[in-house]
Amino acid sequence: MATLYTKVKLYIEANSATWDNTKVSLQNDSDGKGPYIKTWTYSFSKPTDSQIASYESAGNTVESNAAIDTKREKEYLSWQEQLDKLYHDIDDGKLDKTGSWYTHIKAVKDANSKE
């Protein structure tokens, strides 16, 4: 289930704006009702519950892809190691799909594919 933050952020972006902590705040009172929009001062209307709900699928995709990005970052080599692989691929004449840099990056991307 996508978070309220993600769904509200998508709604804001759909209205050609960006998240601004001075214009919107979310709150959870820990009363079992869940998070809600506490303040809203954008020039366009605050989203209704049904408008927020309509971003569930897109929100799930955004959050899933963000988790995959985080996992990829952990599995990629450091930029220094990647440059060294590229150097050796160039030196060995393997600046194509057989090079060690390409095969490493492709393996990480294939193991952590996005939606």
**Average pLDDT metric:** 95
Q: What is the CATH superfamily of the largest domain?
A: XkdW-like
> What is the count of DSSP helices, taking H or I runs of 4+ residues?
5
In angstroms, what separates the terminal alpha carbons? Answer: 16 Å
Q: What does this molecule look like?
A:
The protein is mainly alpha-helical and 115 residues long. It folds into 2 domains: 1-74, Phenylalanyl-tRNA Synthetase, Chain B, domain 1 (2-Layer Sandwich); 76-115, no CATH class. It has 5 helices and 2 strands; from the N terminus they run αββαααα. Strands 1-2 form a two-stranded antiparallel ribbon. The two termini are 16 Å apart. The mean pLDDT is 95.
What descriptors fit this protein?
single chain; 115 residues; mainly alpha; Phenylalanyl-tRNA Synthetase, Chain B, domain 1; 2 domains; two-stranded antiparallel ribbon; elongated
What secondary-structure arrangement, pairings included, does this model have?
Layout: H1 4-14, E1 24-27, E2 36-40, H2 49-53, H3 56-75, H4 79-91, H5 100-111
Antiparallel strand pairs: 1-2
